[in-house]
């Protein structure tokens, strides 16, 4: 299998090679074949309970992974704050996640989950013969064997990555007990969305033990975490404890007090509030409604866009409907309702009587011309 590779930027103003993500452009026939295999493999894993969706929420159809993952972590933080509990939350960033998974690790996962041997052999042949090359404006590289990692752009790659991560998570989950959230509620100590792994523990020693266990497993897999891109939040009796820090890969993990962290679209900082993010979303909704009002669309299309803006704000601001005071949510809804009324009150262009008369006259002329042509053909 050969693939043309292209680099797409991970962020704005990307310059270095580390700021780009390689994507493999594969033939359509191969994509269709492996998408069918991926669908069958996913169904096999979920129906047999091999993927714990309470922990891993990425790459599984029918699971609102991103929103559910972020909401559950935020809910745990809010409960620890309101119930005055102890809680440690550590967001871990995996270095070159897709590009560092060993092929042996994927084969191990296939064997552990009892995938038929014919599928194991087929995937082993597929990745062992996988070659790529990359092109820029100035040059094209030679063909390179994919000796480690999976190809981004291949339809079978996501579920294979989920399987490999599931092996790692299962090996580490016994290092800590469920996090106590009060009121008889608890949460598994590990949460994952593809490669975004989050540790949630009620005891500091359990958090450190979990970090050591994950670090050892990653070293065994020849993978590693990026401490500088990771972050931690420690809550003691409902308040942020800036003195508590953690380490991974023999380096200290920054705290949210030092630098806020963004995980799956949600920001976390030492205030443990959504006020600032709510204000940003309110500003975004207001600017978008003004832009819609200034455009030259008819009223019904403006109303349609207004509904779209409301939908976007829900996803951009995942605390939209569950803010502590509800002010942001109600204010956004109120402004959208006001804009909708304004859009409806605007008269469409055909409401002008003179324009309507011109349109009717033109329509009559077209009909007469059509009838004249039809009659001329019949006489012939």
From TrEMBL:
GO MF entries: RNA-directed DNA polymerase activity
Keyword list, A-Z: Nucleotidyltransferase, RNA-directed DNA polymerase, Transferase
Highest taxon of the lineage: Eukaryota
Record-annotated Reverse transcriptase domain positions: 1-272
The protein, known as: Reverse transcriptase
UniProt source species: Plakobranchus ocellatus
